[in-house]
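This week, work through this protein record:
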Amino acid sequence: MRFLWILDRVENPASANALLASRLAAQLLAAGHSVDLLELWDGQTLPPAAPAGAVQHTLAFADERLMNTALENGVKGGTPVPLRLLRLAAHPTAVAAAFRQLVLHAPRRTVDTRREIERLDARYHFDAVCAVCAPYRAAFALETAHITGKKLLWQLDPYASNQDYQAPGGFAREGQLLDALDASFITPQALPDYEGGPLSPWREKVHLLGFPVLLPGQPVPAHTGIRCVFCGSLYPTVREPDFALSLFAALNEPDVTLTMAGGGWQRFAAQAQQAAEVLGDRFVRPGPVPPAQAAALETGADILLSLGNRYDNQMPSKLFGYLGTGKPVLHLAVSPTDPTLPYLARYPLALVLHQQEGVTPAVVDRLRGWLRTVLGQRLPYEQVAALYPEFTPEQVATDFLSALR
């Protein structure tokens, strides 16, 4: 079969969703299929090289990057709206992008992507075209595209039930999207929407698919002390650093370093400053980093730190990448029904601490004792793969192809 994958890196050049799609594409190539990638990017940070054997096509959207930067992605709070509009006015292409999106309701990313899908399909005659979401611009481009093959959607993040984002049109719009598609792939946490929920009429179109993230880890370079590492973005009300910062400040061990790489710290500057006053140079914030640098930080870690989401219909794929390394994982849960808890209960080197317990002396002592106990321990990859077979890239590729038969 010949596949076209549509990957959107405009808002996030280091998109985890695009990384997962590339990993699945590599498995399809290894199985003898043909794969093209249509990469939507920000006109500033080039997409990484495609998997060996894949054909890469690109579409740049520097205008939308400038628009999003000027308008701060429409997030409430932050810079007052008049100042955002002044920044927008400094970039004519961004003004045009905003007009198309907000007034004409025809974002260039959707319109131009649809045209490119049709152009590529006319040339290569794909058996299936898959849009990887979120974001959903590519999905809406595929929805109305005139192509010969199947239309597929891989929903790595929910649309209508995404509780930190009010999706335009809600479940009705998602149903309309599903009407135009042949199949959609979802994570288990989204299944309730299709079984007794508002998307039940489309249950036969959806298939469960794991994250292809379980890979063997690399050896840890020699170093002193205990390195605790988190790499990921922060989002108000969804994934926040407060519990982690309070916990490590209370721990305040002289040989424990906390590194938290990634974006989103603008809303948590005060909390970061308080932690830095206690921890000093043992609290490291390198900001957004390229995927290779994030991987190097995680490789050099003794303990991998996982921040739980506040919403139960979203599960971070990164957690299973952590588990694949075999290293100790510290998971900080903020929801009592965190969907990762059953998976973590299987993992012998996991410690789960709940925010509702508070940062008490007993909790801090529990963390301190666990750090000393698990330091240097590591599970063989084969043991981890046996615990979570549905998250190995090979099994994900098998499940994906089975759903298309």
